[in-house]
Amino acid sequence: MSEATDANALAFTTAQTYEQLAQASLTELRAQTEKLHLTLRDTARRAIQESFGALHIEIETTTAVLQQLSRCTQRQALWIIPAATLTGLALGLGASLWLATSRTPIASDELPPPAPGNDRVVPRCRDSHQRIRPCVRVDVSAGPFGAHHDYYLLAPAEPQP
Fold this sequence. Notes:
By secondary structure, this protein is mainly alpha-helical. The chain has one helix at residues 2-100; strands spanning 124-126, 132-137, 151-153. The radius of gyration is 53 Å and the shape is rod-shaped.
């Protein structure tokens, strides 16, 4: 029995030695894990700080560029708005002059010859619907008059009783 007891004692001693080695390995593994955790946390913190620093620099640069663009735009607006207004006025004036000028002058055959002995004959002209209506000739050198003509059509006279 002594051999069996010695074998058991040897196995027990070996097991205790392995347990102590395992405990030492676990303790060392915990220490290494803690160091790795601290290193990883510091590295992540530095990377985040660098990213936020770069983001902050980009935001400041973008803000400066946008402020400069705003100042340039405001300066341009001081010229663009009056220029656009003057261009619009010039186009409107040109269009109104173009529309107001006569496209066809009054033909002399539209005006009837005066009646003998009557100096006060009201001339007659054709309107846009080709109806003959009384009209008044306007001095062409004084500028255009009427909607599209250099003469003015008079309203038909109401019959007098």
